[in-house]
Write a structure and sequence with these properties.
heterodimer, A: mainly alpha, Helix Hairpins, 76% helix, B: 484 residues, mainly alpha
């Protein structure tokens, strides 16, 4: 990390997380929302690696591997779900999801 | 990994290995005989239960301090494993009736319980994150298991997207806590934070981390203002899945919250007491008031579940006061046990009523049950009285200990607010009783032996245990957290 100050990494992670959160709240396509969620996960990964490098400790990097594995499991479930919904409804637009209301 | 580490989490290892074996055996079990899969699942749960009980008197630490086996984890794991058995019981006939009898259903349940158990063992933020994911991912699939029904698919997708959103918050919070302390160990964070980055930089990171983490777990247990997903998910998912979820996912979320609050955030700099108090107050008010307006039983129970999260959170508000900590943990665990009995009973009745595509669970569908099936109606009335907190039921003692903890911690106004919202809640709980006994109707109830057994056991437990609250509270008091 020589040369680039720590705060730049942290700033980038915060920007990525905010973009991801904004995407989740604004976008209506389930797939795009899911991509935004992945962005949020990866902003946290960036933080872990940054701090891991700063403290010269390995546990942050190990955590990133765990996160990648769980994110892959989530992709498997999420995409399968979206395929099933696309088959029955012909669209994965979240605005169509209005069966359940109170 | 050495042998003593493996022995410390033997019930968990057994459950995961057993789940994979059941998944394999299920391939050779013909479609009409899935009762064998259900039985195998219950056997696995029962063996894990026995192993967990055997751990009760030997608190230990394993995996370089990442895993703690203490009274807290033993108490919660017994609750999860028993919930698993009740979950299989309320599911079996429902799945047959809805033509959803797949072996994966039970296996996913086992994995989900394994995730919940992992959280109760956690002494490290990594383990908490992994446990939450292992708990949640199977639940996303279970919510959508009735995939021929649009409502189940919709519930599953909503749960998946918002659950992952919450996981991202939890992960981001963990990242900042790691930045503040240079370690993910819960006990290590307390000591490490003063020598973190530098005192000026570590404090905002600690606060950001605590904030994101608490918000993320708040999403998972559905406290206001992070509750909006819950009624939709509870209504759309198959009734037995919702019943299982309402107990295990809620208990596991609170377990994660307790581990984080009581061990890592007890330092004065990371004190989140005012935030928790505000959330608890809001959750009790919103949950109970909105529940009044519901005409669907599943949605009503969803809002009731939100309100119960508020009551539970009330016990955790004075967490930073060392004098009340033991009572705080004990009263929350006691309430969770009473809530589990009540919730399973109520949802078991709904599994017998539900018709698919969110039909059959309206208030009007239960009218006349008192004439048609008086025993079942009486048992459901006990559940509703216990939810309200009427004396002579376990729910009363649950609320009593919660309020007492809040008062001991100096939050008298919170206890008063809890009492007032409880009075409000009487309206919609007792409406169910009035509907069953004093309105005419012809309820279409598909009798299920196993689900009825859960209802009667639940009702019996709520009444009988209410005579020995001290004994159960004593058990919960022994379930303190192993701090170091």
């Amino acid at each position: 990390m020589s040369g680039i100050p720590l705060v730049y990494y942290l700033g980038l992670a915060v920007i990525l997380f905010s973009l991801g959160a904004a995407g989740v709240l604004i976008r209506k396509n389930a797939l795009v929302v899911f991509m935004s969620l992945e962005l949020m996960f990866n902003s946290a990964n960036l933080l872990f690696i940054t701090f891991s490098n700063y403290y010269k400790a390995l546990d942050g990097q190990i955590l990133v591997i765990f996160v990648l594995a769980t994110a892959a499991a989530e992709v498997a479930v999420g995409l399968a779900l979206m395929v099933a919904i696309f088959r029955s409804k012909g669209s994965i637009d979240l605005d169509q999801m209005n069966k359940l209301k109170g | 990994m050495i042998l003593s580490d493996a022995l410390a989490i033997l019930p968990l290892i057994l459950l995961i290995v057993w789940a994979m074996i059941v998944l394999l055996i299920d391939l050779w079990i013909p479609k009409g005989r899935k009762g064998i899969t259900a039985l195998l699942t219950v056997i696995g749960l029962a063996v894990a239960l026995v192993l967990t009980v055997m751990q009760a008197n030997s608190p230990t630490s394993a995996f370089s301090g990442m895993i703690k086996v203490d009274g807290f984890s033993v108490f919660l794991n017994i609750l999860y494993l028993a919930s698993g058995i009740a979950g299989v019981a309320i599911s079996f006939d429902y799945l047959n009736r809805m033509d959803l009898q797949h072996g994966e259903y039970y296996v996913l349940m086992l994995f989900s319980i394994a995730g919940a158990m992992l959280i109760s063992y956690a002494a490290d933020l990594i383990i908490i994150f992994l446990g939450i994911e292992l708990l949640s991912i199977p639940l996303y699939v279970l919510a959508g298991i009735a995939r021929s029904q649009g409502s189940s698919e919709e519930s599953s997708l909503k749960y998946f997207l918002l659950g992952t959103f919450a996981s991202a918050f939890i992960l981001f919070g963990i990242a900042w806590l790691y930045g503040a302390g240079g370690t993910t160990n819960l006990a290590g964070l307390v000591t490490a934070i003063p020598d973190g980055l530098n005192s000026a930089g570590a404090l905002p990171m600690l606060l950001a981390g605590a904030g994101f983490l608490v918000a993320g777990i708040g999403f998972k247990v559905a406290v206001v203002p992070f509750h909006a997903w819950m009624p939709d998910v509870y209504q759309g998912a198959p009734a037995p899945v919702t019943g299982f979820m309402s107990v295990v996912a809620k208990a596991a979320g609170f377990a994660a919250l307790m581990r984080v609050l009581f061990i890592a955030l007890t330092t004065e700099t990371g004190d989140v007491t005012p935030v928790l108090a505000a959330i608890a107050l809001l959750t009790m008010i919103v949950g109970n008031v909105v529940a009044i307006a519901q005409s669907n039983l599943k949605r009503m129970l969803a809002y009731s579940s939100i309100a119960n999260a508020g009551y539970l959170l009330m016990a955790l508000v004075p967490y930073s006061n060392p004098a009340v900590q033991a009572d705080s943990v004990a009263s929350a665990l006691f309430y969770l046990a009473a809530y589990a009995l009540t919730s399973f009973g109520a949802w078991a009745v709904i599994t017998m009523m539900e018709k698919g595509e969110i039909q059959g669970s309206e208030f009007s569908d239960i009218a006349g049950l008192g004439k048609k099936n008086p025993l079942l109606a009486a048992a459901l009335s006990v559940m509703m009285l216990s939810f309200t907190g009427v004396p002579l039921t376990l729910g009363f003692w649950g609320k009593f200990y919660l309020f007492r903890t809040a008062i001991e911690g100096g939050f008298i106004w919170l206890a008063v607010a809890g009492l007032l919202t409880t009075l409000v809640s009487a309206y919609y709980y007792l409406r169910v009783v009035v509907m069953m006994f004093f309105r005419d109707g012809d309820p279409d109830l598909k009798y299920s032996f196993w689900a009825s057994t859960v209802v009667f056991f639940g009702a019996l437990g709520l009444v009988v245990l209410a005579f020995f609250p001290d004994m159960m509270f004593g058990l919960a008091t022994k379930a303190v957290l192993l701090l170091k």
